[in-house]
Amino acid sequence: MNNRLPTRLRLLTAFFRVTRLHRLLCPFFRGMGLILVLHRVLPPTAGPRVMANARIEISPAFLDQLILFFRDRGYEIVSLDTVHERICRGSKGAAPFVCFTFDDGYADALEVVQPIFSRHRAPFAVYLVTGFPDRVLIPWWYMLEDLVLRHDQVCFTWQERQHRYPTSTMEEREHAYTTIRQLLLAAPAEELGACLEAIFSGTPIRAAAYEELMLSWQQVAALAADPLVTIGAHTVHHCNLRELAPDMVRREILASREAIEQHTGSQVRHFAYPFGSPAEVGRREVAIAGRCGFATCTMVNEGTIVAAHRNHLFSLPRVEVTGRYQDLTLVDMRRCGALSLLRNGLQRVVTL
Fold first, then answer.
1. What is the pTM of this model?
2. pLDDT for 169-196, tens place per residue?
3. Which residues, other chains included, contact 203 with Cβ-Cβ below 8 Å and sequence gap of 6+?
4. For the chain, what percent of residues have pLDDT higher than 90?
5. 37 is in which domain, residue-wise?
6. Angle 252-254-255 (CA atoms, 0-180°, nearest 5)?
7. Cα–Cα distance between 270 and 164 in angstroms, integer?
8. Rounded CA gap, 144 and 205, in Å?
9. Is 265 helix (H, G, I), strand (E, B) or coil?
10. Do 198 and 129 belong to one domain?
């Protein structure tokens, strides 16, 4: 992506914020609707935070505002099954739609998100990484945040290399977090546990204390029993699929679907790629997922849904809502499709 794009986006956002021109563009560029991707919903926490984690969290109040925002503008809140139906059959004369999806499987999907959507009588979806309820994965990014925030220095040895990071200031903490996070993301799945052990073994931070951040299988089953909730697959280990051999990609996808179906008794018809940007999802991954029998597969690349997406059901775009920009004016610009056009080089049909 062009490094100047964020600056242009900021300038365009400021321009639209003042002129409201995006609302004039909306009938031409909003398409049939959009799919939103969110992660966590929880009350704001006091004290310093690492930006990477704070950005995946929005407040319950903002989620409530989002639902009302779209309904006030005539949008129908729909399930993933309805998204598939609208794309395949067309939506001439239908109201625009919005579909809310929540990635990974955080426990607040049951504790916070479900009560909000139940109150509004609106559907939503959870894309589940099955390694979390299996308790073979842990949300190590929250462990890492606590590590850099609670210590003045982080030291460990990994693969015969000594790592030492000062963490006295927020700038140092952000740098340490980002660097160690990249180390963990680059570790093969079979080495991740050993890498985590190397980082945290000399600290009081223990993985067991973080397991409850993620849904258990009992909680997943409770969500799946709600007719307003769709459970989709999101792989077993949340790996970068581009880095895996084809048979491993297929295994990650199918094993997650099979585990969900086994624990919930419900058919899994929808899949989301881990990370989801074109950097982690290419034509090979889309082709493999497309042969796995899903109705839809979704990415995370800013764009609205248009009629031509009937030819791209396994690489549908989603618009990410983050804690960094809990701003309804920005949401308004994005649902109109104007920012997507700039970000994607005036491309209307956003896929890979």
1. 0.94
2. 999 999 999 999 999 999 988 899 999 9
3. 147, 151
4. 80
5. 5-44+57-84+109-135+226-343
6. 65
7. 43
8. 9
9. coil
10. no
